[in-house]
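Ticket #4471: structure output looks truncated?

Reporter: J.K.
Steps to reproduce: submitted the chain below (273 residues) through the standard prediction queue, then opened the result file.
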Amino acid sequence: MMRVIKAIRFFFVMVGYSLHMLITGRLLEAGRRPMHSALRQRAGCISLIKGLGFTAEVRGSYPKDIPSLIVSNHIGTLDPWILASQFNVAFVAKAEMGTWPVLGMVCRAVGIIFAHRKNVMKTSGTVNEIQDRMRSGVSVLIFPEGTTSNGQQLLPFKTGGFQAVAGMEDGYIIPMYFHARSIGGKEVTTASRETVTWSSPQGMFANIWHVLGLGPLHFVIRIGEPIPASGRDRKELARSSQEAVQRLMDEEIAELTGGYQPIPALDAQAVHP
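Returned output as attached by the reporter:
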C-alpha cells in the first residue's frame, strides 16, 4: 500500500510542478527562463524525493561561478530527480522523449535540451543551446555512459555529449559519482547496492516500482575537481572525465568497505564515438 501511495505522490508532484513551470515560465522574458526552470525543478525534486523517503548528501565542492557541464554515472530511472534536488541543472535527453505522453510535457517544462542524434543539421543548434544554458548560470548534466549500469564498473564514456564543450574557452567539466549508501536504513554492501540499479530486461516503470518498494534510501554524491575544456577535443575530455569519475567511484567503495579494492573499470581508452 505504501508503494502505491509513493507512486501516486510521485506522479502528482512531478506533473503539478511541471504545469506550474510551464505557466509561470511563459510570463518571463527569455533570458530569465533557464534559471527559473532550474530553480523550480530543484524545488520540485526536493519535494519529490522527500515524499519518497530519499535523502542525499554532497561530498566535495560544487563551483557555481563557472559555465559547467556535469558528467555523472547512471544507475537508475530516478537519477535525474535525485541529482536535480541538489543542483540547479538542465539535462540533455534524446529528442524522442519530447513526444512521450506526460513525460514529454515534463521534459519541456523543466527545460530539457533535446539532442537530435540522427539529424546532423540540428547538432550545432544543440551545442549552442548547451553553451548558452551554461553561461546563464545553469549547469548542464549528461550521463556519458549512455545507459544505466550497476555502479560497480563504469561503462566506456561516449564522446558525443562532450562536443558541446570541446575547446570552450570558459567551459569546465564537473565529474560526479553517486550511488546508494543505505537501503531501508541499513548500510549497503558492494553486492546489495546493486538493488537500486536498473538493468535490462526490466522496464523503466518496473524499475521505479521496484525502487519505491525498497524503503528509505540515502545517496552519496561525490564531486571531483573541475576539468577545463579549453584546448581539448571531445575524445580527450571524455577520457579525462572517465578517469575522474573512476577515482570518485574508487573513493566511495574504499570508504564503504574500509579499503576494498574495487573491480577495475572498463578500459577508459575505449571511448565510444
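Triage note (M.O.): checked the attachment and the full C-alpha cell line is present. The helical segments are 2-25, 33-52, 79-84, 103-109, 123-135, 204-212, 234-257.
Status: closed, working as intended.
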